[in-house]
Amino acid sequence: MPANGPELRDIHVPHVSMWWPLAPGWWLLLALLLAAAIALTVFLRRRAAWRRFVDASLADLRTATARHAEDGDTLAFAATASQLVRRVARFRDPRSATLSGAAWRQALAAIAPDRDVSRLAALDEAKYRPVADIDVRETAAAVEAWVRKALARRRSHVAA
């Protein structure tokens, strides 16, 4: 080395942690992951709340079925089941609150199109008869299936 030139020293790279500070791409990825976790949490909580709503709606039906097993009062079961069907139908289609007969049957079929509504429509008549001749077990199953279908999240409202 010539003695008259500048004196050069070795280059020393400062110590930088491998994990910190993160590059902007990592910050973006972390933000996206956080947003996805929040969205998933909100989705799962809403779904759980909706399922609790459906189960709470069916609680009266289960109670009426159990009460019928104890006392055999078919009229009380028919009244409770009919009230549940009316309540769910009114929730899905407010215009159905005043319907009866064939119009009521059509409204039930429109709310849950792939379900047989003959037992549900028969409930409306059975609750006013002196003796209700309905099969409680099958009627309860039909009402529960219809309610679950009517309260499915995919359909928010009945088409006008």
Automatic annotation (TrEMBL):
It comes from Luteibacter jiangsuensis. The chain crosses the membrane at residues 25-44. Keywords: Membrane, Transmembrane, Transmembrane helix. This is DUF4381 domain-containing protein. It comes from the Bacteria. It holds the Pfam family DUF4381.
